[in-house]
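Objective 1b: paired records.
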Amino acid sequence: MESPDQIICYQAIGKALADAAPAGWSSIEANITLAGSRVDAVVSYQATQGSGYLTGVPMLARNFYELARLISTEEKGLFKSCTFKLYSSGKYDASYTY
């Protein structure tokens, strides 16, 4: 079950991605890698006019690092990578590798 803080973090990630995407986008996929406190992100989108990449999404790295901290467990620690997919309907999928 997701905590209220996790939900707020997911919402912040979704808003940052949606705000950075061009009009007419249908899906956005963020592939995130954590290495210590460093966050690397490759963000792609699908839109009616074609596909492309988003760069410089404000607060994205910080929000994903915060999410990693929120969902970490003592046994697993922080996730090593995450794939976050946002759909224009507002639904999202997230998967993690530890």
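Objective 1b, second protein:
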Amino acid sequence: MRQRLAVGLFLVCLVAMPVLSLAATFVWLRGAAQVWLTNSTNVASGSSILSAAITLTSANYTRADCELNVPAWSTTVTANTAVVVWLIRSVDATPNYEDGAGGTDPARTPDIVFPLRGGISSAQRVIMPNIELPRGLFKALVKNDGTGAAMNGATTAWTLTCAPYILQSL
């Protein structure tokens, strides 16, 4: 009985070894960072702004690390608040976008939430990793969600920048 078990185990290992050696190696390939939205006006607390259509310079990339860079706020930011972003999708090439514009939030949860440090009015730079990207055309709807302070772009523009990446086989 033990001999059969040993022979069976040997045969399983003999069959499995070539399969394991054929396994591919994968790496994360990073594309070029792209500014999706820059604004040199103030965006008041509770207000939103919609970008132009975004076409990724690194086509077919599926994920991104996104950064919100706000150089200044009009006053101190309220604790436990955020700037939220919806990626407004188009399902065709026409393009027909889903609901969502300045002053109109989509009827779904945001795609990106940038939590902010409360009690300060100085610059805040927040990076959110691993954001799933839409396929095809889309726009970014950025909302200053109840921070109690305006995103002060009048002095220095604030930006939403994303760097796409994709899992690639070597």
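The mean pLDDT is 88. The chain has one domain: 25-169.
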